[in-house]
Known about the structure:
Layout: E1 10-14, H1 21-32, E2 35-38, H2 39-51, H3 62-68, E3 72-76, E4 81-85, E5 88-89, H4 91-94, H5 97-107, H6 110-126, E6 129-133, H7 136-140, E7 146-151, H8 154-166, H9 172-188, E8 200-203, H10 209-223
Parallel strand pairs: 1-6, 1-7, 2-6, 7-8
Antiparallel strand pairs: 3-4, 4-5
Helix pairs in contact: 1-10, 2-3, 2-5, 8-9
The structure holds cytidine-5'-diphosphate.
Residues 17-18, 22, 39-41, 43-44, 103-104, 107, 133-136, 185, 189, 192 line the site of cytidine-5'-diphosphate (CDP).
Amino acid sequence: MSSDSRPPLVITIDGPAASGKSSTAKMVAAALGVRHVDSGMIYRTVTAVRLRRGDAPEEWTEQSVLDAAPRATVAPGATSFEPRLDGADCEAEIRGEAVTATVSLVAKMPRVRAWVNALVRATAADYEIVADGRDMGTAVFPDARLKVWLVALPEERARRRILQRTGQASDVAALAAETAELEARDQKDREQTQPAADAVWIDTTGITQAEQVERIVRLAADRR
Ligand code: CDP
């Protein structure tokens, strides 16, 4: 909690797919001694819950996704909120291809967005947080102390995502496929992916992750 009378610290980090939001937010939160909340992880967990019913996503109604949503929860850990599905760890499942291919469909549903937003806001009621996603600085925390908008060229984002997933450098074909997947998802998510008017833009294409983190921590320190 903050030591003065100002509201507890909320920092938002938004941007397009694989722009480094989550890993950056995690490191910024650790540096500041607050907790990281990954809103994309919540959309992914809700999607994983609904996928378990086994019917085709084209058949999903918004109500059926909302009925499934309460099985997705977040548990406060030492430095972050962890995704839980029926109370259990679900990290591998929510990062899988089936969820990645379907999550944008779920994220388009307005009442699902409202449900996720309420869950994210609830974390900030009890903890100081760094929240990352696409609309954290606009729809969810319009009064955040610091808002960051992270961008990077699509190919660079694809290269990083492959490295993160496989631990290896990408070959030309894999890089092209990953870039196409990211651009397609950006397109599907474009309505809810908006920079706040007062966000600080950081283009991470040519800088290291340590540099991005340092810049954000410095900005946060100025506003704390
Ligand atoms: O890490 P990456 O950018 O690939 O995706 P993510 O942050 O895990 O988010 C997964 C999906 O959740 C996105 O493709 C969006 O469809 C949705 N999402 C959203 O609509 N709004 C947010 N605040 C966060 C994620």
